[in-house]
Design brief:
The chain has one helix and twelve strands. By secondary structure, the chain is mainly beta. It has a four-stranded antiparallel β-sheet with strand order 3-2-5-6, with no helix packed on it. Strands 4-1-7 form a three-stranded mixed β-sheet, with no helix packed on it. The chain has a three-stranded mixed β-sheet with strand order 8-12-11, with no helix packed on it. Bound molecules: zinc ion (ZN). The site of zinc ion (ZN) has 9 residues, from loops.
Length: 137
């Protein structure tokens, strides 16, 4: 398979950008902006504490989305009663698939501290379930 060019632009030139694969394994790190080429596939782009999913198929430019206070007020708790979304893997601080603004940080059993497969978006409350906890399980 041929490599695909990818450019990642953070909203601040000081922001650290980390690319990881689907299971959370490290690929590449940079600051402010990254130009690279990767094999096609699903990756996560971690910027400013949020992991944005990207299905890399062709030459792509990814810009860090900006979120603001109004978004937070608009989305707060609104997906709490929505049907559960199943996700293949747990990735720390993944961008919420429902509201695209909140993040998923994972949940642990309060007694055993084991990672749980059920989770909720910190912002909109969207319930999700992980098929695999990957490297975190
Ligand atoms: Zn959400």
């Amino acid at each position: 398979m041929a490599h695909v060019p990818l450019t990642v632009q953070a909203s601040s030139p000081e922001s650290e950008i980390t690319l990881v694969d689907e299971q959370g394994h490290f690929i590449l790190k940079g600051t402010g902006e990254i130009h690279t080429s990767l094999l096609p596939g699903k990756i996560y782009i971690q910027i400013g504490g949020v992991a944005y999913p990207l299905d890399l198929k062709e030459s792509s430019v990814f810009e860090e989305p900006s979120s603001n206070r109004e978004d937070w007020e608009e989305y707060s708790g609104r997906n709490i009663n929505e049907p559960t979304i199943t996700l293949e893997y747990f990735i720390s601080r993944r961008q919420c698939p429902a509201c695209q603004v909140g993040v998923l940080v994972g949940r642990r059993d309060p007694v055993t501290l084991e990672m749980l497969t059920e989770d909720n978006c910190l912002l909109c409350g969207q319930p999700v379930e992980y098929e695999s906890l990957g490297v975190y399980g």
